[in-house]
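Quarterly update, task 2.4: zinc ion-bound model.
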Amino acid sequence: MHKKSSKHGETRRKKRTRTGSSRLNIENIVSSMFSDISIALGISRLGLTENELKKIVRNVIEHLLSNISYRPSKSVILNRVLRGRLRFAPIVSETILDLRKELSEDLLEYVVNFGGPVCAANIRRLYLESLRRKREDLLGLLREAWDTYGKPLPIRCPRCGFSSIKPDLTCIVCGYSVKEKEFKEIIGFNDLFHIFLELTDELGLRRTLENQIVVYDPNEGLKPPPPRYGKIQYVVPLEEEELVKIEEKLGLRKPRLKEVEEERKTVKEEKRKVKEKPTLDMFLRVNTE
Ligand SMILES: [Zn+2]
């Protein structure tokens, strides 16, 4: 019947790909096949309601049909879903996250195991839901998804263990705010600072002293300011003790007796504080984009 005339055949095909008729086609497939397709997707026993399953199946079928130019038979559809169940898992996961405010343990397990990029996009929520469900065993998979599909940062968070400390020293995933002292420990600041003092030229040291910060680049160690655009770099405010070392290196002061030093320190800290805040903020704005 399709071959009556090639002209007719063409008109028919064009009609079929129109949104109206494919919409009808999708609704038809969803209502008659959602049960089989749910099984093929491996989501029939996750405690989803019939309506929820239909929504998920609809999204999957829409995606499937958008890549096929002909009208596939039911068995072709089922086959494709079965073969593509992992490929469709992010679509399924995303729909599940849209449908539920909180995930059951089964749903959480499914999304974390198969969601891939969807896990990375919803990393904070899934981290919190895993903790709420006491499923710390899922965090390893979440970290992998974050490292593969997310935006892993060079500094690991001491609280949640994800590579997720932003240049403003807060964690993308758990929200933890790393203390300056803690940050210095994480990067092994003292050794780096020693090398920095040895290798930095006079101009660099003077710039550092003026801004009272150094820039930590995970690939290059400590650098004089300013941080460079487009690179992930961390601004580290310097303490009095470190500023004094730079001054000594520049020959601006001679090593002093301790008591005199303490006295000077209090006076100098007061003076320096005025400058510190705006400078740091300015650099952070540049660096976090
Ligand atoms: Zn964290």
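Highlight for this quarter: The CA atoms of residues 213 and 238 lie 5 Å apart.
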